Amino acid sequence: MTGLIDARRTWELAEKRLAAETDPRRHAILTTLVAHMRAEHEGDLDALMATVSPHAVYHQWGASPVDRAPKSHAEVREFYRAVVENDCGRLAHHIDRLTVDQDTVVTEGLLRIAYPGRVLAGMGRSVPDVDAFYLYETQMAIVWGFDADALVLCEDSYSTGDGFADMRRLDPDEVPARKGV
């Protein structure tokens, strides 16, 4: 892991909270949350979808006035499939705060993603080198809802500004490995 984008920061606080949690329901949803975060990092689509409720509906709020988040289990699967296939999972949500109750977890912190230049070019963004990676950064809060089986029902994200606005090319040593910690 690089210091700039250290995936362990994504689940580190959740694992600490899980280790201390004695309430069975909160323990179950934190277990799912950690499994979800790790599977996303590993690019393991089947393990990731095993954490998602069949009734999942996601929302994204922030720089764009349009909510483009997936609105069904099938759309969530397609979203994560595209993340894995396009190598957009080199990310770290440096979570500074985590709150948990019986049905919800709220996480907040700086999200950093190493975006492949070819993906950015495909999105219509001008990049000098399509073979390089570029840094996306935004402050993000996520409201995670869980169903009765402790599966992710929603991942409603709220971000500040346009994380692409100040993107820069990452040096090769700043790009994290895709799998493994």
Word description of this protein:
- The protein has helices at 8-20, 24-42, 45-49, 73-85, 117-122; strands at residues 59-61, 91-100, 104-116, 133-146, 152-159.
- It is α+β, with helices and mostly antiparallel strands and 181 residues long.
- Strands 1-5-4-3-2 form a five-stranded mixed beta sheet.
- Helix 1 packs antiparallel against helix 2 (24-42).
- The chain starts with 7 loop residues before the first helix and ends in a 22-residue tail after the last strand.
- The model has no long low-confidence stretch (mean pLDDT 93).
Entry keywords:
181 residues, alpha+beta, five-stranded mixed β-sheet
Weakly predicted, low-confidence segments: none
Spatial strand order of the main sheet:
1-5-4-3-2
Distance between the termini: 6 Å
The number of helical runs is: 5
Mean pLDDT: 93
Q: What's the total count of β strands?
A: 5
Give the strand content.
25-35%
Please tell me how large the radius of gyration is. Answer: 16 Å
Summarize the helices and strands and which ones pair or pack.
Elements: H1 8-20, H2 24-42, H3 45-49, E1 59-61, H4 73-85, E2 91-100, E3 104-116, H5 117-122, E4 133-146, E5 152-159
Parallel strand pairs: 1-5
Antiparallel strand pairs: 2-3, 3-4, 4-5
Helix pairs in contact: 1-2
Short description:
By secondary structure, the protein is of the alpha+beta class.
